[in-house]
Amino acid sequence: MNIYYKKTNRLFNFFRLLFAVVVLVISGCKQEADRPNISRVLERGYVAVGTLYGPNSYYLGPEGPAGFEYELAKKYAESLGVELRIMPSYSLDELFPRLDSGEVDFLAAGLAVTPNRLNAYEFAPSYDSVSQKLVFRQGNKRPRALKDLTGKLLVTANSSHVENLMALQQAHESLSWQETNEFDTEELLLKVLNGDIDYTVVDSHVLAINRRYYPDISIGFTVKKAEPLAWLVSKGSDDSIIASLIEFFGQVHHDGTLLALDDKYYGHIEQFNYVDTQAFLAAIENTLPTYQPLFEKYGQDIDWKLLAAISYQESHWNPKARSPTGVRGMMMLTLPTAKQMGVTSRLDPEQSIAGGAKYFKRLIDRIPDRIPFPDRMWFALASYNVGFGHVNDARIITQRQGGDADRWVDVKSRLPLLKQKKYYKTVKYGYARGDEPVKYVENIRRYYHTLSYFDEKVLNNTTNSREAFTMQKSKQKPPNKVNDLAAE
């Protein structure tokens, strides 16, 4: 009986060991098959990309999916000849596990290259850099260094901001903060604005976008200088993924695609003017409602918000506006242009808006059909300001210098050359203050995007944004709800 038991036990252990080996082999084969690689991507016909919801990465706009990271990832998918399958997350805690589990092939979410992330992941080539800014509410005492922090600092959990604060804490033992997964960056900025917290840390490009809507968010100091951004790939990925990304970023750097995308999303937000932004927000509340029906009526072929943005740049929505050069009214039309558009009174708001819309549509139609939107609009806006002929001259100079004459980001860098004799003497329409249409277009783009933001968030009953918007214009400081972290 004992002999039989021993033989049976040995046989059982043998089969158990054999089963374990088979499981390990099968598991290893499955893991190998599941490792992201270009061959697998091409076979299945799509690339799976993880990103974050937000204005910088991915959001659903009026015309469908948008965002810098989304558009760049779409370009990558197109370069492979496959579809893009975007998988957005609401937080970093949700995002990273998608890469770790193999649900996505890589992450494209404006993520900073940090020491901890370098240990855990592979990085594609960097495509941009940002700095980290500590922000506070305008009107409160400005902190100029870490030692000046006296209130509640709340930051996004598992972010590069936390990693940097932990490094800084070694030299500043009193530095303390709280972390959250509940709120996104915009919500943290609103908490600063509303007085729920004293400070947060935000990346510079995200801050630049949000200060157009919330100018009372002020910069205390730079927490960390230039930090590279890059796409993340799992360390278990096949080298072919990284190789394809290296090739892709080399191409988009070389052909200007990256520069054009950067201009599309960030080219108009570099300059921030607190007084101008506050005045514009006040005008949205106090003046725009009077004329919005007219902008909507005559903006049928043009987004009414763009038409309103042009009018604000021209006249600050003042129907009696006039300049020393003779342009007048809401759209600041010249007398010859007014006559061409059938405007009998430039001081009549409806006639002026109708004439301006008609003239702008005519300028858009003059832009070559091969130039797509939104560049088509930017060329038309520059023409509205300086004249179609001068814009065409700048396009000719761009072409001579090897740039793309059909791409706004290339032409806008050449427009200022029309002030220099060695350039303007070689083109048909000669001298022009070419820097002015560049500023003109950038201003209108800022106004337009601000109007679009509030049209979506305020007018569509987004409570937090509405309250923040109202608070800024009421100039009433909210009650202080903040407790000193040291006392908690």
Automatic annotation (TrEMBL):
Domain Solute-binding protein family 3/N-terminal: 46-269
Keyword line: Cell outer membrane, Cell wall biogenesis/degradation, Lyase, Membrane, Signal
Xref: SMART domains: PBPb
CDD domains per UniProt: MLTF-like, PBP2_YfhD_N
Bilayer topology: Peripheral membrane protein
Top EC class for this record: lyase
Protein name: Membrane-bound lytic murein transglycosylase F
Gene: mltF
